[in-house]
Amino acid sequence: MSGMARENLVRIEEIQGRGRAIVSSQPLRGGEIVLRDSPILLYSAFPLNGQQLQFSTSIYCDNCFRKLQSASAPLSCPSCSQHRFCSPNCLSVSIASSHNTWVCQALSRMRDCPSLVLHQPMERQIQARFLIAAYNLALVSPSNFQILSSLQGHGEDKDAVAAQFLHSVISSLCPPPSIEGFLFSLELTSALLAKDKLNAFGIMEPVDFNKENCGQRSVRAYGIYPKASLFNHDCLPNACRFDYVDNAPDRNTDVIIRMIHDVPQGREICLSYFPINENYSSRQKRLLEDYGFTCECDRCKVEANWSDQEDNEGDDDDEENEAMEEDHDEPMVEEAASEYETDFPHAYFFVRYMCNRENCWGTLAPLPSSNVNQSSNLLECNVCGNIKNEADDIDADGGQGAYSIPH
Predict the structure, then answer these.
(1) 28 near 51, Cβ under 8 Å?
(2) Contact yes or no for 1/33 (Cβ under 8 A)
(3) Are 377 and 394 in contact (CB under 8 A)?
(4) H-type alpha helices, 174-240
(5) Whole-number CA gyration radius for the chain
(6) Using CA atoms, how far apart are residues 184 and 200, in angstroms rounded to an integer?
(7) pLDDT the model gives residue 215
(8) pTM for the structure as a whole
(9) 3-class DSSP state for residue 196?
């Protein structure tokens, strides 16, 4: 797919109030691939003590995070036997870089640290994994560490306790090797944790609709993608992320950014940082807590008015409810429906670009087209992989479903 992308499609710009942003350098069509990015850093999403969960980290290769096949014989780290690899190549690459002697010893020592694995939440253990991977990046690839250091994120007071605890643990158990021009400090630990929080992408499990928790996805690993991290958020995105974990012939953890619909030259390209079906209050809460900003996109402006109206209506519930019970009839229902369409001009986006598979809530984007002047009529879901034929609004597999608009 990377070969289908045209060159010089996007550029980086500074946008007032939004910081660095990705902007189209020319008109883009739906389905166009604008970026394929590889991670400069990967780390497991599982706690240090895998036995705390019902599954073990050993079901994935610790280098490419491909799921290990039960019929194959995975290779173990010769030093710790805790980490497993899908091939001799992954083992040799990892031992020379991401799972070298210091990383192996550091993870083993932290695994045996009761104050970390027994008395701290799982989030803290995953942060410890990230810090070991980040400090090791400074050792094996100083240039990539500089890229990591340049990403958005600065230490904040609210995260100071976590940073101080983890810095103390690493200092006492496994201080990073001395590197010229590199200062292992609490300030750096704090800054790195902030960069991880704002920039890490979850490498998701393929969706399994046969499980009890139908449609729910878990994270198997996290990655830092230096180019993809520059995309800003919009609650009605014009691009979305695709990955093909376990199905890619190589570069298993690459992410691909594909246009959802056509955009003109000079338009900012945005992703949604979470499923597009989330309601207004949930989106605002997540964005403020996780990313530190309040969203003022077009969709949020519309839905904020809904929220304000609901609050005002709540003050006069008794009188208005009585009046509605007396006067409620069919013409009022039709009027309300008409007002809904007027008040929510973005409803078309959900009808066209949200997957209609039950409990999926993925985003649809056209498949890449060999015709530079026309987008494909086939839309792919970035969660479940279903294909929708836009020409007749029927799923390619013959199924037909109704879309629901979140509110």
Answers:
(1) no
(2) yes
(3) no
(4) 186-199
(5) 24
(6) 21
(7) 56
(8) 0.83
(9) helix
